[in-house]
Structures are given as C-alpha cells and as structure tokens.
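Fill in residues.
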C-alpha cells in the first residue's frame, strides 16, 4: 500500500515554536492508540497537529489521513467525513461504519480528527469502535475537551510561554519565549523590517503577557502593527480587556475564564477595527461550514449594507487582518474561518434578529442549488475534471445545505431537488455511500408526489444498481417512472430508461434489457433530458449486443455516440463507449484495436476519477495482453484491478462481461508465466489506481514493486529487516508505531510465507537480500 498525502490547508505563515510539543505528540502517538490534544480556543491545537503529522507519516505504512470536522454539523455525518478523507469508494451497500471497519481492518494508518468538540459524542463512539475492531489504526484528535473514550492519552496544549513580569529579558528573548517570536514574525509580515530590539522588547513582552500567550490573540494583535506602535497597541488592548473583564465578571459565563476573556478581547477589538463592509462579510460568512470561494461569498454575503462590488475589498481586508484564512492555490483561491472566529461571527449575525441566521443559511442553500444545477448543465462537455474538483471542494457547503433542508420546515422539496441534480457526481466518482445517505433520508422525509421526488427515486436506483442491488433498485425506478408519467414530465420518464434496463442487465435478463434500451433509443431525446443518460442508453445497448455476440452492431452504436462526445469534448460517457468498443473488438479477435481503445478509455477515466471503470478496463487490457502472449503486464494489471475490487468490496462476477474477461486473462497469464505469476500479481496489488493506469499506458517502464522477487509485502520486508537487526516483537512494534499484536502478526506471516520456523532463518534471508542489492 502506498502512503497517501496528508490533505491540509495551505498556510502562508510560518510555524513558530512548539518544538517540545511536536516531539511529545510524536512520542505519544508512538506509545498510545488514541491521543487527544485539548486546550482553549485559539491556543493552536490544529496548527500543532498540522506541523507534527507530516513527521509521523513515514511510520504508518498506509498513511496519515486528516479529517477536518469543523465543517461537519450533523453527528451522523462523521463516518461519511472519514470515508471521504480516506478516499473509500465502496459499492457493497453496507453501513458507513462497517465500510470503515473493513477498509481499515488490515491497515496501519493514523487518523487525525481535527475539531471534535461539537461532535464529541459521535467522535467518541466511532473512535472506540474503530480501535476495538482494528489492530493497526491510531487516532490523533483535537478538541477543547477530551473524548469520552477509555485508554486515551490527553495532552493539553498550553499557551506559548511569556516572560514573568519584572523578570529581566535574556539577550535574545525570541529564542527563549516563543510568544515573542510569534509576535515578531507576524508583525514583520505587515511591517517589513520589524524585529525585537532593546527598545521594544519590554512592550512586546507585556503585550504577549496581556494576551496570555494565546497564538491566535497574538496574531490578531500583530496585524495592527500596520497602523500602531507596540506601546499604542498595548494601551488600547489593555483598555479593551478591562472593559470586557468588568462586563464578564457579572455574567458567570464561560467567558469569565481569563483565557476566554483574553481571546474575546482580541477578537472584539479586531471586529471594532473592521470596516462596516468587513463586519457584514464576517457575520454572514460565518454560516459557511468549511471553505468557500469568492463567488459563494458574493451570493451569500451581499445584501443590505453590502454591494457585490464591495465584496473583494471586504474579503481582502479580512484576510489582511487574519480573520479569514486563504486556502487553495494561486489559481483557485478559497477562504475559511478558524472556529473561534466563526463562532464570534455567528454571535454577531444572531444579533441582527431571530431570522438572520436562517436567512443566511437559506442563501447558502440557494447558492448550492444554483451551483449544482450549473455543474449538471455543463457536465456533458469538456469541463468534467474541473467540475469534479469543484464539487469535491464544495462538499462541506453542500452537506450543510442538505442539513438545512432536512431540519427547516418547508425546505424538503429543495433538498430533494439538490440531491437529484447531484446524481452524476456521486455516480461518476463512486461516492455511492454518500449519495444513498442523502437520497434515502430525503425520500423518507418527503413522500409528496413531485418531480423532484421522481428524479430522486431513479437517482437512488442508480446508486443501488452500482452496488449490485437490482432487487431494491427495480421497484424504485418503476415508481419513478409511474410518478413522472402521472406528472406529465417526459424528460424524467426518459431518465428512467437507463435504470430500468440496468436492473434487467444486472439480473441477467439480457433480452428484457435489450428491449428496454431499444425502446429508449427509438425515441428522440426529450427537452431537458440529460445527454449523459442518453449516452448511457447507447452504452448499455451496445453492452448487451456485445454479450450476445452482435459485435458489429455494438461497435456501430459506440461509434455513433462517440462522435457526439467528441463534438462536445465529453469524457465520462466517452470512456464507457470506448470500454464497450474495446470489449467487442477483443471478443471479435481484433486485439490491436482493443488495446488502442482500452488505453484511450483509461486516459479518460483517469481524468474524471472513475475508479470502478478503471478496474474493469485494466482487466480487459490484461485479457488483451494474454492473447498477445504478454503474461507479465497482464498479471500486474490483474493485481492492480484486484486491489480496486478489494477496497470497494466488489463481487467480480457482478458485471456480465466482467467475469469471463477476468477468467480468460488470469488463466492465460498463469499459463504464460507459471510460477512467476504470483510475483507479478503482487506487484500489481501494490499499485494505486493512478500508478496502475500509468503502467497500463506505458508511462512507466515497470510498476513500483513492493519487494522484488519476494513473497513479502513492503511492510513485511521492513519487519524482516528489523528482525535481522535483532529487534524483539515489542521493539519492532515501537519502531513502526504499531500495536504489539500487529507486529506479531507480521512475524507469523513472514515465517509462513518464507516456509521458515525460526527468526534466525528470517535474519539470514534478509541479510542475503541486502547483500544482493549492494
């Protein structure tokens, strides 16, 4: 397995201090399966984690995965957030928690759950389950309070150290006191040339003490150095702090805690120093969960007191004041708020009246609906890779819109409409678990006979068919058809043909499937009908014809709609046409044409992220290789496809054309390679989908092997080398940051695979391999 990249926000500012804490996080993660970083808001828990986890990545064979939970408001969505972070594309139809358990069962991964406090109970339940059901998984969580999970180890993140009042400062105070170093670093960013000097260091030290060493408060204060000197900054902040303290002392709320008052004073002052337009954006943008772009901000935040043409300056001002964090890259700028800043903005928004927050969330819902409808309109065209990227980026906002629709009276129809327009995204990218989750909830909550319900019914049927569940899908798609007929919506009636034929195809009723698709293609497309679903009618009829041996007609149908795809620059449906075309050519005996079209198919599937289509095409290309006498690439591609099926929990005989293709490919490769088949097959198992496609296309001369000429996986080879160093099982577990029983399991499998009975034999074997490599 390959390590996956740690998805994290792009930060322009440097990381200051926290050396001891970083080392302690690494030590604790090595020693404990659950570590929780706790501390007050603004103390820097997330920044510490993001700084520490890249230094842990190499110790986890299956990667470190960051799950940002600040944008998740519904506790039931926590498992789905993990599934997305782990890039799981499971089509088994099992519960999200079961999907996670089975995916992580034999993996050595670190799950980083950031911002758990508002989902503490759900996070605790899930973490406890995952730790109990897996052996190699560890969890690092950040939360204002510890999770209620036995055996967790808690590290309370403290504010940055500041000098004691009256204590003489050392010659280089920034080296001794990270709080002073942080202020100097952030002040220099807005006032080039600023540094700590004997003239200003006492005032800076007093300022950092007044801010209790809280990193967020220090950063907010340092931004004011653009207009004020350090002493002026200290005096004004001190007045603000006294006013807030006097007010808080009479409330008895959590804000009376000194650090809460400190952060509140800094944020309050930052708010007062914002322009009227910046204050309006801050309040209204606080309803965004996760990140957002300028277009979304313009739609949601513009209104009374703020014109759209003022938005850019207001957003830029908030970024300059460190109240908005800029994420993304140089091409795609996105913004988000730290949770403390967002909660403050929500408080301000609620001050505008009882309906202010609901109105803002409704604008988010409206923006999401417009955005998704636009994506669907543009889907049959050249922008599919960019649309997939954008839809992934907006996933937190779309989820918040679904939650709003489910929890707000009168909004269910809008929720159904939103879900119905997302069918292509969930279907194309394999996000079937999430698609089913929202469609099933909305359909259960909104039984009224509407066009939105008809579309949601057949969309859910497509999710189920992709998971091989024709028994449940068939009645849903028929219900969708009957409802659309009753409502007189011809486009929605036409949309149901794909699902109706698909249910027959999966059930093995080829004649009925053929009749459904023949009927569908006998009618011209209706106004408003999705061209992607028109294309799938061609794909599936050609599929049935190829299964039934009518290769020439199947290829003619593929070529007919291919011309339409080429004219529009479409890639997703085009890739399916190419796969059926290659399948028909392979079955007919034209291996050269099948190879060309299968490779072209893989290029397109990589562009749109169609993992399952990639797996089937890899096996088809393997079958082409075996007929051409090329056993090794066939075996590698079969192994790569098997990894996709294992991760997705797919039954290999689910697709009618799939089983026979794989069977012929494997039998042919084994005959060509003999004992060498297993080595090449394991090589393929070690490939990611992207690496497998690169290998299939000849972009790599050979696949990156786990272990050349060895029956061991990469991790097992690493363990064998540690055995050769004389390490015990416990020491191996400590070195690799895994549980003792995981290390013991590795040793047992090594002995079994190598046919050895002692650790000394393993040591000799490892030393011999090392000498061969030198």
């Amino acid at each position: 397995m390959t390590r996956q990249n740690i998805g994290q926000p792009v930060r322009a500012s440097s990381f200051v201090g926290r050396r001891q804490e970083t080392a302690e996080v690494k030590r604790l993660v090595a020693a404990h399966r659950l570590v929780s970083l706790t501390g007050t808001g603004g103390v820097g828990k997330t920044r510490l984690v993001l700084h520490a986890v890249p230094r842990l990545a190499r110790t986890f064979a299956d990667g470190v995965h960051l799950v940002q939970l600040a944008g998740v408001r519904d506790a039931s969505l926590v498992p789905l957030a993990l599934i997305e972070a782990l890039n799981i594309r499971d089509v088994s139809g099992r519960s999200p928690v079961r999907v996670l358990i089975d995916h992580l069962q034999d993996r050595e991964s670190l799950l980083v759950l950031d911002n758990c406090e508002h989902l503490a109970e759900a996070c605790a339940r899930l973490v406890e389950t995952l730790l109990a059901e897996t052996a190699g998984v560890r969890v690092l969580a950040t939360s204002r309070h510890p999770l209620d999970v036995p055996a967790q180890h808690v590290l309370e993140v403290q504010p940055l150290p500041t000098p004691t009042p009256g204590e003489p400062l050392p010659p280089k105070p920034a080296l001794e006191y990270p709080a002073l170093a942080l202020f100097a670093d952030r002040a220099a960013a807005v006032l080039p040339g600023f540094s700590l000097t004997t003239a200003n260091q006492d005032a800076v030290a007093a300022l950092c003490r007044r801010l209790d060493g809280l990193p967020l408060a220090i950063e907010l204060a340092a931004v004011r150095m653009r207009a004020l000197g350090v002493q002026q900054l200290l005096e004004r902040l001190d007045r603000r702090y006294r006013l807030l303290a006097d007010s808080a002392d009479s409330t008895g709320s959590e804000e009376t805690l000194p650090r809460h008052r400190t952060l509140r004073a800094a944020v309050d002052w930052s708010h007062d120093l914002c322009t009227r337009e910046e204050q309006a954006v801050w309040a209204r943008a606080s309803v965004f969960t996760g990140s957002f772009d300028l277009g979304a901000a313009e739609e949601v935040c513009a209104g009374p007191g703020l014109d759209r043409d003022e938005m850019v300056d207001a957003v830029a001002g908030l970024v300059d004041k460190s109240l908005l964090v800029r994420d993304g890259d140089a091409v795609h700028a996105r913004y988000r708020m730290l949770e403390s800043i967002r909660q403050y903005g929500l408080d301000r928004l609620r001050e505008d009246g009882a309906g202010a927050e609901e109105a803002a969330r409704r604008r988010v819902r409206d923006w999401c609906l417009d955005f998704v409808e636009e994506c669907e309109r543009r889907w049959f065209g050249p922008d599919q890779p960019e649309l997939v990227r954008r839809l992934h980026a907006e996933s937190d906002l779309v989820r918040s819109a679904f939650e709003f629709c489910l929890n707000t009276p009168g909004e269910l129809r809008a929720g159904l409409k939103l879900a119905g327009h997302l069918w292509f995204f969930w279907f194309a990218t394999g996000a079937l678990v999430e698609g089913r989750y929202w469609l099933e909830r909305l359909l259960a909550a909104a039984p009224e006979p509407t066009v939105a319900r008809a579309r949601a019914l057949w969309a859910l049927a497509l999710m189920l068919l992709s998971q091989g569940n024709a028994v449940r899908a068939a009645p849903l798609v028929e219900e969708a058809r009957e409802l659309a007929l009753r409502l007189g919506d011809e486009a929605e009636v036409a949309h149901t043909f794909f699902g109706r034929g698909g249910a027959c195809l999966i059930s093995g009723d080829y004649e009925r499937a053929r009749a459904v698709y023949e009927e569908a293609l006998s009618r011209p497309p209706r106004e408003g009908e999705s061209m992607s679903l028109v294309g799938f009618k061609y794909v599936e009829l050609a599929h049935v014809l190829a299964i039934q041996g009518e290769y020439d007609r199947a290829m003619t149908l593929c070529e007919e709609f291919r011309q339409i795809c080429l004219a529009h620059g479409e890639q997703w449906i085009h890739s399916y046409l190419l796969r059926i075309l290659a399948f028909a050519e392979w079955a007919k005996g034209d291996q050269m044409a099948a190879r060309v079209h299968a490779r072209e198919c893989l290029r397109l599937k990589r562009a749109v992220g169609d993992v399952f289509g990639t797996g089937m095409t890899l096996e088809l290309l393997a079958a082409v290789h075996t007929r051409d006498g090329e056993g090794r690439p066939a075996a590698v591609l079969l192994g790569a496809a098997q990894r996709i099926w294992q991760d997705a929990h797919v039954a290999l005989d689910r697709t009618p054309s799939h089983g026979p293709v794989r069977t012929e490919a494997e039998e042919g490769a084994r005959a060509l390679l003999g004992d060498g088949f297993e080595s090449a097959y394991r090589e393929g198992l070690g490939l990611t989908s992207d690496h497998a496609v690169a290998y299939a296309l000849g972009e790599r001369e050979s696949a990156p092997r786990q272990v050349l000429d060895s029956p061991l996986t990469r991790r097992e080879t690493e363990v064998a080398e540690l055995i050769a160093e004389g390490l015990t099982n416990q020491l191996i577990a400590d070195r690799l940051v895994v549980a003792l029983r995981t290390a013991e399991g590795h040793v047992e499998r090594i002995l079994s695979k190598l046919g050895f009975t002692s650790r000394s034999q393993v040591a000799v074997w490892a030393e011999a391999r090392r000498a061969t490599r030198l």
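Residues 356-379 form the longest helix (24 residues).
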